[in-house]
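Supplementary Data S3. Sequence and structure tokens for construct A.
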Amino acid sequence: MQVCIIGGKLQGIEATYLAHKAGWEVLLVDKNPSPPAKGLCDLFYQVDVTNQNEFLPICRDARLLIPALENQKTLNALHHLAQKHALPLAYDPLTYAISSSKLKSDKLFMDLALPVPLPWPKGRFPLIVKPSNSSGSEGVRRMNTPEELESFRLSEGTLDGWIAQEFLEGPSFSLEVLGSPEAYQTLQVTDLEMDASYDCKRVLAPTALGESEIKQFEEITLTISKALNLRGIMDVEVILHDGQLKLLEIDARLPSQTPTAVYLSTGINMVELLGGLYLNPSGLTVSWPPSPRGVVYEHLKASPGRLEVSGEHIMANAGPLQLWENFFGADEAITNYEPHRAEWVATLIVTAESRKKAWKKRCGVIEQIRASCSLSTYLDPSPANSPSLQKS
């Protein structure tokens, strides 16, 4: 069947990749003439979807419309068009309105008595300060002292519209849930690793969390889903700090990165499930494998003499990307790489029978890339320390 994906950046890459894995034809729409997902789709139209006279003839025959963006004006236009013309749109506006505001979602967490980082001024320094209406690492800042916070407040004029919480150290984890008020299904927990600016650079599966923590994470996720009357998909992120899971954020939309890792580890395709939820609302059918595969999913940036692991933001403005198989020994890569090109980026996808074997295979891929492209310097930065530097 044909699906229409609106938005060709990071979420669009994810949606297009998984839609193709489901065997669907992808019609991609973006007002940008060269979004990253353009090189992955079957048909591309450069259209501003708020211009309904132009967009409606393009999308009318699609079996499903999947928003892959966070522009509220565009989402409102899509919702209005879908209601007016009875188009199948995979979007829950009421839940999204809460999850897209950290102020609203944090209030929900408090009302539900869920474990969260302490808000300032209860929380002690250092603090993490982030804008309410952004996603991922966009705009995130660490404040180490009251003087830094006051300087930031003066530069902004106010802290209204910002969330300030205690900074917690520990590993981060993600979990997706799909469904409607009749029934919800949590999927596979994945492990997240961040770069120096708190942008997710790597997803690992299966999780290193223990069974009791996984169960607690699932209970937190289901509690939120029921409170929101979720219809669709939602991503939940937590951090494990001093042996306790603390809730960081939710996003009631198709996320990027983790769905592909879950698909490669379990065979469960979130985009296919999302389509089934909206096109066949009788219920979800999820088939779990007897044992998940190991997956390493990460982002690389190559420049003359240097290879760096980086957050996914490097993929957003890389121009049209292509899907490569057996990329220097990796199963797949989504990349703008060309032989003899000095600068390029890639999302590296490596799988094996176990996570340990996948990591070993991944390290071999990195060495092959460095040797083939003469990249003597290797960096893998994280928030906890300055960039690690290794030279051959």
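Construct B, processed identically:
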Amino acid sequence: MTKKLIVIIGLLTTFIGFSQENTSSPYSFYGLGDVKFRGTEDARAMGGLSFAGDSISLNLLNPASYASLKLTSFGIGSTSNFNNISNSETSEKAKRTTLDYLAVGIPAGKFGAAFGLMPYSAVGYKIENTITENDLTRNKRFTGIGNINRVFIGAGYSLSPNFSFGADVQYNFGTVENEAKEFVSDAIFQDDVQLGTRERNTSNITGLSANIGFLYQKSFNEKMNFYSSLTYSPESKLKSINDRNIATATYNPITGTEFVNDPRDIDVDDTKLVLPSKLSFGAGIGETNKWLIGTEITFLNSSNQNNRFNDNTNATFENSQKYAIGGYYIPKYDSFSNYLNKIVYRAGFRYEKTGLVINDQSINDYGMNFGIGLPVTYSKINIGVEFGKRGTTSNGLIEENYFNLSIGLSLSDKWFRKRKID
């Protein structure tokens, strides 16, 4: 057991340095960035349902599920994102591979506990725009990098075989850096050195948040069950300590070298970034270890959100909603003769009104999910794919068509058994 804990602590430590560029979305510039965590791979493959779990795997969307754990469980997930970014004139492709979460769940009778680390949101984009007017060429470049990580610890308790509740406490931390450069050159003499300016904005973000969850299950008969869930995250505020540095710059288009001259720090206000309150309701029906179908709706009070710097005025926020439907099917979970019958087959769909409004245009996101769960004794290998679309090319905006390939490991065992022979 000690060796396992050492390995997990090592993974949690190295994860902080690993997840530095977790997205390629230009929309990550706004607010807290691109929200990354949408649940473990098995939940994501069902559209993100927070009540579809079992007693040997972690469900990180609803802390009430910790109370149902029967085995100590270690979960880790990773996603490769393939993004096609386009506007009305051109398109670009980008790829990112990132860790999604690292977590451990520990059962203790009617109690259960979990702790772990995940990237909550991320900033990562590179945009270049070149305009030539009156023999002058203006080249604008915008880049951003960083993420908000989240360490959490939580517990759940079963009040009865049918009802459980739980709560997570989360510490959020991270650094986000945005940079804007503009170079001007004479279009007639393209070989000349280009003169320009650079503005770099850095935000160091910290703060606490929480999540409360409830699960209820009722049997109609020997086979049919009803499942329902409720989760609530109260509004919280993260402190953003902001710095701004401006400088003149020169760029040689032939050699590709760039020099920064006369950098100066500019005083800017620190801000309080709002993590909006969130309320989710879910319900479904199914047969244990056979099939399940359910739906969930989530409301976010995201109209209270704000940007990291107060002088960013080209985006506003509205309240957000997310709708999900999904489920799973297992041909025969205890089959001895055919492994394919033991595989968990999952599918789901989600539609999300993100709450971000740019140029009076709401930015929406929707995705279709498919996945399988490959059992290995008490553990599982979960594989999922997602096809999605976010944004639009209308009103001078950007459309993202993305494909996500996710792999998660759920490793379960009894860690705290007394050994008769040591």
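The longest strand covers residues 194-219. The chain has a mean pLDDT of 87.
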